[in-house]
Automatic annotation (TrEMBL):
Protein name per UniProt: N-acetyltransferase
Domain of life: Bacteria
């Protein structure tokens, strides 16, 4: 199974996939609690940030559009807080009555994010339920790891489910720290992968 970096024309399909798969995620169920239009809100919510990473060539999409992985390159990690500040007005419009909670979540994650050593950051990853258990996820992680191992840099991610934290270990990730706690939200589970030494040919 092949994958590629998403283009501007892929933005709608990427946000649609993320919205549908994160609709029942524990974090976003709390964030948009009681909202009947949660999928539509999430579609616009993710669009704010995915649009930036597609431009930066930081969004991997499977060839059959069933799986997506959004990552942030090391040179942009230091700009996360600034990026979120610039998107604040758009976030306010999208979230409506959930804006305060969204702001607390984003600010909390920014505050807890490690800045050193330099690293890649997986910000989002989703796979269609019907495609789970196949080669799709393996292909995306393999592609990402080829990039980060070539740069000899680690990778960081925050899992919203304990089961995801357990599953991601098969790709070389380990617990990065204790679970992250942001007031009003379920704990997140930070994980870390050290780069693998590439063989010399």
């Amino acid at each position: 199974m092949k994958c590629r970096h998403a283009k501007d024309s892929d933005l709608d399909k990427v946000c649609d996939l993320l919205a549908k798969e994160f609709c029942h995620d524990p974090i976003y169920k709390v964030l948009f609690s009681g909202r009947d239009d949660r999928v539509n809100i999430l579609r616009d919510y993710f669009r704010i940030y995915v649009n930036i990473e597609i431009y930066r060539k930081g969004t991997l999409l499977s060839e059959n559009d069933t799986d997506v992985l959004v990552y942030i390159r090391p040179e942009f990690i230091a700009e996360i807080v600034e990026t979120h500040a610039q998107a604040d007005e758009e976030l306010r419009k999208v979230c409506g009555s959930s804006y305060k909670a969204a702001s607390e979540l984003i600010n909390g994650l920014d505050r807890l994010h490690p800045l050193n050593p330099p690293h890649y950051f997986i910000s989002l990853q989703a796979v269609q339920r019907s495609a789970r258990g196949g080669e799709v996820v393996e292909s995306l992680f393999r592609t990402l790891h080829d990039i980060i191992d070539k740069d000899k840099l680690p990778c960081y991610a925050e899992c919203t489910r304990f089961s995801t934290r357990t599953l991601i270990r098969r790709w070389g990730y380990r617990d990065a720290d204790f679970p992250l706690h942001i007031r009003g939200f379920p704990d997140l589970y930070p994980v870390w992968r050290d780069p693998k030494q590439l063989s010399m040919k």
